[in-house]
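Support reply, case 0932

Customer input (verbatim):
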Amino acid sequence: MEDDLDLETAGTDAGADAGFEAALDASLAPAAGAGEGFIVLAATPIGNMGDASARLVSWLGNADIVAAEDTRRLHRLVTSLDVTVSGRIVSYHEHNEAAKTPELLAQVQAGKVLLMVTDAGMPSVSDPGFRLVEAAAAAGVRVTAAPGPSAVLTALALSGLPTDRFCFEGFLPRKSGERASRLHDLAVEPRTMVFFEAPHRLEAMLRALHTAFGPARPAAVCRELTKTYEEVIRKPLSGLLEWAEAAEIRGEIAVVVAGAPAADHGTPEDHVAAVNELMRQGMRMKEAVAVIAHDVHVSKRELYSAVLAARG
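Our regenerated output:
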């Protein structure tokens, strides 16, 4: 597969139209029905313009309305892709999405095709778009997607940490007390965690992670993903903190942290005494076994057998 999209073919001139018509999802028009509007969430490049999909380019040239997080960034995007936006461009960001959503939804209900793009990556993932999708779902308006680049998934894949189960935590609270409280709750999270952070706050974030999760927790800092100076630093949190203290950090940052190691809850035999104590207080054996098995995360059947064996 070629690494870069041939941007010279990404325009909307007559020679390019046929190729991009083929890139459109053929099921959209029949599913939407004649005159029925719908919303397209389109992922934009997170750094390398060669990652722009043919469907993104086609929708930029054909949608009736393009809702953009930053219209200046949209202008740079379409200039790089050599595509002309034929529809109306609307600014849609975190400060106006509550007010703009009903207006945009009404346009879609009137039959317009609305394209939603953000500055980078997938709309609604730590970016504007969720409120629009939520309102569309409530109104029965169709929403589809032109998937593509994602900083979350790219960082996860490059981190070298387990990918079978993960969660996205976005940006941590800026206030130290709120951040510490959030990390206290996440200290026992077993899944790999993905965070975003600004470069000037990275050192403070890593210090907070070091305190909450311990110095040995494996992690990775992913910087400038897909860009010229892409860098992935894989170290325990203690090593990442030392790196951040010495480095001049720039660019877009994603931090990936391994989940908490599985706790050692011991064997059923280790908890027989706790069951006997509840029974001494008047609880029936079956109930006491159920309570302790739940609290210490061991098999109820095995704990019951261990209590019986201990009683001879």
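We compared this against your earlier run and they match. Two observations from our side: Confidence is low (pLDDT under 50) at residues 1-16, 22-33. Strands lie at 38-42, 65-68, 88-91, 113-117, 143-146, 166-171, 192-197, 218-223, 231-236, 253-257. Please reopen the case if you see a mismatch on your end.
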